[in-house]
Write a structure and sequence with these properties.
It is a single chain. The protein folds into two domains: about 70 residues, Orthogonal Bundle (DNA polymerase, domain 1), CATH 1.10.150; about 120 residues, HAD superfamily/HAD-like (Rossmann fold), CATH 3.40.50. The protein is about 50% helix and about 10% strand. The radius of gyration is 17 Å and the shape is globular.
């Protein structure tokens, strides 16, 4: 799901309203794939004062915009369908708030494939790049980390996969900057390439 630009626009607008001066590109570089804890740390470092409940307001605004604007990444639905048809266990392991993740999946029509298998860093107490949410998902699925495959598009997620000892494919579309360090992940630019990388296309 192409949710990151929406999250970051909300973060950027809120930081500006609190007196921050960073550009949207700086916001993207600092917070892509991160949680509100990273934003809190930045505001403390920069001496930016925010309302005590700013994170609750952020999640409220983000959910509202996601429900109206978020779209599936082109080709993602087809990949999910192929994986499901091949009886490959699927899950979402996200830094996002559980309610927000579920709302996003519902909006994009992908929820039926992930219902009951949505995991959030908010539930395990450590966000990516810590590997906790990936390891938690693997444990509940009864799959060893080295037998999992992670699909990621953020630096923190790529590092988390490496920290978890999980093979990883990095989605690096031409429309966004490629992370400077892929942490050993194999890059691909379009979702139609992923089935072949995952061995779903017969030789």
């Amino acid at each position: 799901m192409d949710s990151e630009p929406i999250f970051l626009r909300v973060v950027h607008d809120m930081l500006l309203s609190f007196g921050g001066t960073l550009s949207f590109q700086e916001c993207w570089d600092k917070f892509i794939g991160k949680t509100t804890r990273a934003v809190d740390a930045y505001m403390t470092e920069q001496g930016i004062t925010a309302p005590e409940n700013w994170a609750d307001e952020f999640h409220k605004q983000a959910r509202s915009r996601l429900e109206k604007e978020v779209l599936p990444i082109p080709g993602a639905r087809q990949v999910v369908e192929q994986l499901a048809e091949a009886n490959v266990p699927l899950c979402v392991a996200s830094n996002g708030h559980p309610v927000t993740v579920r709302a996003t999946l519902k909006r994009t029509g992908l929820l039926p494939w992930f219902e009951g298998n949505i995991f959030s860093a908010h539930e395990v107490g450590a966000s990516k790049p810590a590997p906790d949410v990936f390891l938690h998902a693997a444990k509940l699925a009864g799959v060893h980390p080295e037998h999992c495959v992670v699909i990621e598009d953020s630096p923190s997620g790529l590092r988390a996969a490496a920290n978890a000892g999980m093979p990883c494919f990095a989605y690096t579309p031409n429309t966004t900057p490629t992370p400077p360090d892929l942490f050993g992940a194999h890059p691909f630019q379009t979702m139609d390439k992923l089935p072949d990388l995952l061995g779903l296309v017969p030789a």
